[in-house]
Fold each of these.
Amino acid sequence: MSYRSTHDVAVAAAKAGISTASGYRIESDPRLPSQKKVPRGRRRPDPLAAVWESEIVPILKAAPGIRAIAVLGELRRRHPDLNPNVRRTLERRMRAWRALSGPEQDVIFRQEHEPGRLGLSDFTDMGDLGVRIAGAALDHRLYHFRLAFSGFEHAEVVLGGESFVALAEGLQNALWALGGVPKEHRSDSLSAAFRNLAAPAQEDLTQRYAALMRHYEMEPSRNNAGLAHENGSIESAHGHLKKEIEDALLLRASRDFDDLDSYRRFVDEVVGQRNARNRKRIELERPTLARLPKRRTADFEEKIVTVTSSGGFTLRRVFYTLPSRLIGHRLRARIYDDRLECFLGSTHVASLRRGQPVSDSKGGHVVDYRHVIHALRRKPMALCNLVYRDQLFPRPAYRRAFEALREREGDKRACKVTVELLALAHERACEAELAAAIEADLDAGRLPDIQALRTRFTPDGTAVPDVVVELTPLGVYDELATMSTIAASGEMAVSSDMEVAA
């Protein structure tokens, strides 16, 4: 057609390398071949023609979000002879109707974030990853902090709920690891930070959260309740972080960790790798952050507890044991997410693993057998119906031994032997080795022999060395005195000769 502007059809066709007939055909109809195709019509009758306008469209207008499978079920209830294979056709027709005549949808407005402006916090559940600590399933969450501009992240394993203690500790660890403070801190409607009342947001802050924000000079904010996309800068990151942890677990080929600290280091490594990929943006944002205060603020709660005659105290429906010498004393217990720090006055007396109630109707127990074993040896039958008996056993082997002894030799013998086994583990510091020996006996069908085990785990006696002292004869000292006298006389004679010569 370019040649046709200056040549006739025959010449233009020859220059273009096509026949003259093709040239005349293009001259009469310049449309492309794809534009000449006639739209394909329906090849079979419309199975929804009889019900689309009269029944389906009214359903879609009354319930815009209804699924196609539900509409199909209703249609088949009304018309039993309707072919169930029309589901795909119905889905396409509903999708097209919604695009042309359906209701307006909500629109997400992408935001441009200013460096140093916004940091976000949230919690995400990690129970579906199947992580185990020493063989036991770990029900936990992650506290997740993220800067909106650079993507800097910090994550911590949280064992309890979405508490203020977990929020305060995780947020402060994140800020001090970052080395600066953003101008605004945003979260969803956490009960740890907001009372979730109808009052204005500033009046709705809890006192502890407001004090935390004042300490770091951050402006607190939150998204509207139920609108998670308003916190999208961290909600989306939740999914990516969980997927990376899942991938790392698959590469590790095991979801079992020896202890909680090992799992926490594992999470730190994954988060560190994500931050390394955003290093340039993090370094760009860091100068825009405000300075940290001179010190951290309290990231714990403090309660006064009294150690009862039961050898411990109850805090938030969980009973904790302590050394019996503290019975009757009032302690200050600092409550962290994963532990309790107990103080008598200003003296630190104990660190305890934090426990959780078993259910809404049943409390929990955190028991260290070392705290009560001396009293239990005097009253071994107390083990039989002890309320925290199952939590007293430090390893499953001791529980198995108690059950086997109880079944074969009765309650009295079972209590006495089990208590002695626990005392042996405490006195000889051989809890793990003793448990292995008990397991071997039980697997072999034998009951633990306390005397044999005492002998086996008795420390090796230290042999007293045979020291042989050889006394020097006293005459040697006389010889030394004589030699000393002769040497002194010789020196005096030499000195006199030198004086005479002079």
Note: Residues 396-427 form the longest helix (32 residues).
Amino acid sequence: MLPIRIYRVIDRSMEPGLREGDYVFVSRVRIHLREGDLVVARHPRTGLSIIKRVESIGDGRAFLVGDNRAASEDSRSFGSVGLSDIIGKVIYTVR
């Protein structure tokens, strides 16, 4: 397993900070997560990778939201995700 993985932003759920077509570099090494961190996680229903912001952490779970609330499917609709479903933390962005 490589410690860094690159993902491409494919929707508008994280605008204005991340735009469709941007690339994010994600550290897969276990990093202590904090509220406000950008993460890549597995969508609990589809298993697809999603990029979201950590709004809160508690009891081994994280509540994830998109910055563009009007265009984001996030924990408000599918609930919090287990910390084991967090793939990694975004450490760098390229436009």
Note: The first helix runs from residue 75 to 78.
Amino acid sequence: MTYKTKGTCSQAIDVEVENGIITHVKFIGGCNGNTQGVAALVTGMKATDAIEKLEGIQCGMRPTSCPDQLAKALKELI
């Protein structure tokens, strides 16, 4: 699934979940090192656990962030 992000530097997130486990995450745009790090950390994790950890994270004064947008994408998938 490709999730179109809102309110972040990244434009989209490619994400795949199989049997409740995150198998693939790739951010399109955004802070390359940070988004690669988030993707590496959540790959292999239960989607529900990732949502719990990432949901609500803000970026500076923005009400959302790339990790928060990933949580929103995962919620749509499961």
Note: The beta strands are 2-4, 10-18, 21-29.
Amino acid sequence: MIDSKDITFRPAQRADVTLIVAMLADDALGQTRENYTQPLPSSYYKAFDLIDQDPQHELMVLEYRQEVIGTLQLSFLPYLTYQGGTRAQIEAVRIRQDQRGKGLGEVMFRWAIQRAQERGAHVLQLTTDKKRPEALRFYESLGFVASHEGMKLHF
């Protein structure tokens, strides 16, 4: 286990994009979605710039002793239901492969839950691929409930 006192969260910087994409591409599903080549396609930097400029999105990195070992994105979605509430969406949660199994996923989610509450969200939601049953069990252990059936239309 890693001592949580040695862990920090900070907003991602443009210089972190290569490390973030490497983590996103480093699993069976990510390998089919990401284009981790050097240099990275400009689309990653364009997306980073859009995220970075929008206060409703927080792209974060997790550092251990000043080394990036994880990432997540929180998006805050205001809407009219729930009396004009805010929904927080967590996406792209990844831990660097050599750091997995050390409890960092739980540290990241506890941080995200607290951050969503600080920003006034009434719910934190996520989607998980059905090909990742271990992820589903992990999310359930944190109190997430599979209350809805999600659907996607890819273009």
Note: The chain has a mean pLDDT of 93.
